[in-house]
Specification:
Elements: H1 3-9, H2 16-28, H3 38-51, E1 55-59, H4 65-71, E2 79-84, H5 90-97, E3 106-110, H6 113-122, E4 132-135, H7 142-149, E5 158-162, H8 179-192, E6 197-202, E7 208-213
Parallel strand pairs: 1-2, 1-4, 2-3, 4-5
Antiparallel strand pairs: 5-7, 6-7
Length: 214
């Protein structure tokens, strides 16, 4: 038994909906490693339960796994908005979300996250606020996502950023010209010196950064 197998065997199992999403994603979708997966999914659920957010924003839906995990901590009248750029995944996402009663709390938006958030900011109405934000979209644009979403998070709110260790590439000089690695390095450096927040990188799976707005 590997250490990862030991961890998984001692972590609360996936429910039926999440197990089905995992199986379907590995069978039918390219790059299934992008799925949050069992252990990280339980961490996201646990964080959401601890924070009890009323509104959650997710950037990067993929096949819907993490959205359902985060939605587990929402109150009855809570809402999660998840934005996915890849319109070819829309039918899969909606089918997967429909496996859970939590889908009634989730709004899926297909489109470019930066443009959508910019439109929210420029609209002639108050900018939406989110108690919890999960960034898991284009790694090259993490800094831009952060700048756009920051005003939408109240003091004491949290931003989670996935893949911030990037399978170790973050410190590997072999990836000094890789644009996704460079984007994540810039993001990590930006957060490390931002006096408006406190943060910690958890060495969970591919790296998960927890950021609290002061």
């Amino acid at each position: 038994m590997t250490l990862q197998e030991y961890i998984e065997s001692h972590t609360t199992p996936e429910n039926e909906a999440l197990f089905t999403i995992t199986r379907n994603t590995h069978v039918h979708v390219l790059n299934p490693h992008m799925l949050s997966g069992h252990v990280q999914g339980r961490v996201l659920s646990m964080i959401s339960h601890m924070l009890r957010p009323r509104r959650i924003l997710e950037l990067g839906t993929f096949t819907g796994y993490s959205a359902l995990c985060l939605a587990e901590g929402l109150p009855e009248d809570g809402q999660l908005i998840t934005i996915e750029h890849n319109d070819e995944l829309e039918d899969t996402i909606r089918r997967h979300l429909g496996l859970s009663m939590l889908s009634k709390k989730i709004e899926l938006i297909i489109g470019d996250a930066k443009q959508i958030m910019t439109d929210w900011t420029n609209a002639q109405r108050p900018t939406p606020l989110f108690d919890l934000v999960f960034i898991d979209a284009d790694k090259r644009q993490y800094c831009e996502y952060y700048d756009l979403v920051f005003p939408m998070v109240p003091s004491g709110g949290f931003i989670l950023a996935d893949n911030t260790l990037w399978d170790g590439h973050i410190i590997d000089p072999e990836y000094d010209k890789d644009q996704q690695t460079l984007g994540l390095r810039a993001f990590n450096d930006k957060i490390a010196v931002d006096p408006r927040v406190e943060q910690v990188i958890l060495p969970l799976r591919d790296g998960l950064t927890l950021i609290r707005k002061l």
